[in-house]
Write a structure and sequence with these properties.
Helix content: 40-55%
CATH architecture of the largest domain: Alpha-Beta Barrel
Structural class: alpha+beta
Radius of gyration: 37 Å
CATH topology of the largest domain: TIM Barrel
Number of strands: 26
Strand order of the largest sheet: 18-19-21-22-23-24-25-26
Strand content: 15-25%
Distance between the termini: 86 Å
CATH superfamily of the largest domain: EAL domain
Number of helices: 30
CATH class of the largest domain: Alpha Beta
Number of domains: 4
Length: 694
């Protein structure tokens, strides 16, 4: 006897209609059991041959919501359960209870739906006369329970007080408890994990009490008798008496624990290396592009190191792949210990790793090279695998945006190319990608376009507000140079200032910046706005005596008080006494303020700092990254604030990106701060609007 024949003999004996339908928008029947003719008066052939018959026989008042539910089953691949009315062939009304499940193929995709239709007309009638027909209701309920037990999903009926009134066999299986152990018990006490028990109870009570909208689809965990938690996808329906009073709820639940774990595993493997658990090339590529977008707006840099182990193939060939895999895992753990917070270590295949260094400070190349040296030194230490010591070396290549690369793909390509250059140079070392050697016309092209930018008025200033932490109002702005290059869009200074310094264009660019800043300050003054003005100066600019003369001339031309201007220079430039003393004294004599930018990156002499005519210290954003969650980072920032106060200097914190960081600085007595949490760099018009609002 075939399986199909046995199936038909079984389903055609039960007092309910069973069916199989295609998994499609109109869901035509593939099979309907003969009981359909007794139920609705139409022979089986009519249901399988006439695709419109089903919709036509649904009661007009129920048709729309039933067909909508069927469409949802197809579009969202969710089972359906509900009660509705149908019109039999002779016109009389039949109440139907329907429950279908989705049958999936070996590939996990829906193939068809299989369900049960049951005549609950009598049950509906007896519900209105419950007190008079208790025995009949019990009989109907027992009969319904029998059919519920053949359902593949959990069926749970709760009273308005949360007591379990009905469970089917599948619910008992998932919970690991018998029907007798569940009936009458508080659902939340016996079947909901303690961690979410109170929240679940409150949500249920709010729904039953009409204080929130009914949530028909939901996911939640249940607690089995073994202590195991299972994830269930529920379809919920509130049960109501004839007067509309909510008497409880009916939940139909599907155990999706294994499916969700499989989905999470697939999602993890899409972005991670299965051997080491590190991000893979896909996640690396996304992170590189994302970091560059952030750095482009913040005028920061991004470094990328490509690392390839030398002669790793010999390990696999001589000792086997299992030993090679263990060695790679050990190397990955060692490299992870070298990361800063926010760095990303990726394995992109074989023995190749990448280390992404987002948000590098001003001297980006120095930091990237120092990281490469630390990586090489760490790998020089022997690695122990299965009791044997391995001495590993690696070839490293590195590149930095925007100093060398202009975008994400170029940064990845340059780091990879530099790694192969390091191998070609003798291995066991690092190599910086040098675009001049690869593309000798690049710098010439950049310089030519930059020269034209001055003539064509393509340069512009953006302004990042500096806020008082006491009042929350902007008290100053830092002028940030941008080049609106027709070929590349808005370009941050780190991408073109090195070329400008190399070609001598930094001098006319610097003069333009000073004049534009003073012009904007005069325009603000006409509106009654007088913020302090900070402007960055390159070391080459400060070494020119003409720089102070240009600044004096612009201040006089636009009628700007020198005390309103602060010239920012890097810590390393300020501490170079041989070249900085004269320019700093000339700035001081002019009456403008001087600020040390990115304080903490270099090596400041306290005695030199005390003697310098410096008015302001700006805390480097790299120290703010881990504040306040890192005690050591918080201690450093606190120490800089106290040091500045002891020296009688103003202090400004850069890189404030969270409310927690702002609150921490305010608590430490730091008077001023800037960063994305407070305001991003703004165009002149937007900065004007912000100042006017304040």
């Amino acid at each position: 006897m075939s399986a199909e024949v046995r199936y038909r003999m079984l389903v055609e004996q039960i007092p309910a209609v069973t069916y199989i339908a295609e998994f499609s928008a109109d869901a035509p029947f593939i099979y309907v059991s003969p009981q359909i003719e007794d139920l609705l008066g139409f022979p089986v052939e009519r249901w399988t041959e006439d695709d419109d018959l089903w919709a036509e026989r649904i009661h007009p008042d129920d048709r729309e919501h039933v067909l909508a539910a069927e469409r949802r089953t197809f579009e969202q691949a969710v089972p359906y359960e509900g009660e509705f009315r149908m019109l039999a062939a002779d016109g009389h009304v039949v109440w139907i209870w329907e429950r279908d499940t989705i049958i999936r193929g070996t590939d996990g995709r829906p193939v068809c739906t299989q369900g049960v239709l049951m005549d609950v007309t009598e049950l509906k009638r007896t519900q209105s006369a419950l007190e008079e027909s208790e025995s009949l209701l019990r009989e109907e309920r027992d009969r319904a329970q029998g059919y519920l037990d053949i359902a593949a999903t959990m069926i749970v009926v709760l009273g308005a007080d949360g007591a379990i009134g009905l469970v089917n066999r599948r619910a008992c299986e998932v919970l690991g408890r018998s029907e007798a152990e569940l009936l009458g018990k508080d659902w939340f006490a016996v079947a909901v994990p303690e961690s979410v028990r109170e929240h679940s109870r409150q949500s249920f009570e709010a729904a039953v009490g009409g204080r929130t909208e009914e949530i028909q689809e939901s996911e939640s965990t249940v607690l089995a008798a073994s202590g195991e938690e299972r994830l269930i996808r529920w379809h919920n329906t509130l049960l109501r008496a004839d007067d509309g009073t909510v008497t409880g709820s009916l939940g139909s639940g599907e155990d999706i624990t294994e499916r969700r774990l499989a989905e999470q595993r697939v999602a993890f493997l899409a972005y991670h290396d299965p051997l080491t658990g590190l991000p893979n090339r896909a996640q690396l590529s996304e992170s590189v592009h994302g970091s560059i977008e952030v750095a482009r707006e913040a005028n920061r840099s991004v470094g990328l190191l490509c690392l390839d182990l030398d002669d790793f193939k010999l390990v696999n060939d001589s000792l086997g792949h299992p030993v090679g895999d263990e060695l790679l895992v050990s190397i990955a753990r060692r490299l992870e210990s070298l990361k800063r917070h926010g760095d990303l270590l990726a394995r992109t295949g074989g023995d190749e790793f990448f280390l992404l260094l987002p948000d590098l400070p001003g001297e980006a190349m120095k930091h990237a090279v120092a990281t490469a040296e630390r990586v090489a030194a760490a790998l020089a230490e022997p690695v122990e695998v299965e009791g044997a010591e391995f001495h590993v070396s690696a070839s490293l290549g590195l590149s930095v945006f925007p100093l060398l690369a202009s975008g994400g793909e170029e940064l990845l390509r340059q780091a990879d190319t530099a790694m192969y250059q390091a191998k070609a140079a003798g291995r066991s070392g690092h190599m910086v990608y040098t675009p001049e050697e690869q593309h000798p016309l690049d710098r010439l092209s950049l310089t030519a376009r930059l020269r034209r930018s001055i003539e064509r008025n393509e340069l512009e200033l953006h302004y990042q507000p500096i806020f008082s932490l006491d009042t929350g109002r902007p008290v100053a702005v830092e002028a940030l140079l941008r080049w609106n290059d027709p070929a590349r869009g808005l370009v941050p200074p780190a991408a073109f200032i090195p070329a400008a310094e190399h070609s001598g264009l930094i001098d006319p660019i610097g003069e333009w910046v000073i004049d534009e800043l003073c012009r904007q300050a005069a325009a603000w003054r006409e509106l009654g706005l007088t913020p302090r003005l900070s402007v960055n100066a390159a070391p080459r600019e400060l070494r020119r005596p003409e720089y102070v003369d240009s600044l004096r001339s612009a201040l006089e031309r636009h009628g700007i008080e020198p005390a309103r201007v602060v010239v920012e220079l890097t810590e390393s430039a300020a501490m170079d006494e041989a070249t900085a003393r004269g320019p700093l004294e000339r700035l001081h004599d002019l009456g403008v303020g001087v600020a040390i930018d990115d304080f903490g990156e270099g090596f400041s002499s306290l005695s030199r700092l005390r003697e310098m005519p410096v008015e302001q210290i700006k805390i480097d954003r790299s120290f703010m990254r881990d504040v306040p969650r890192s005690p050591s980072a918080s201690a450093v920032v606190t120490a800089i604030v106290k040091l500045a106060q002891a020296l009688g200097r103003e202090v400004v914190a850069e890189g404030v990106e969270t409310e927690q960081q702002r609150a921490f600085l305010a608590a430490q007595g730091c008077p001023m701060a800037q960063g994305y949490h407070l305001a991003r760099p703004l165009s002149a018009d937007d900065a004007t609007a912000l100042l006017l609002r304040s």
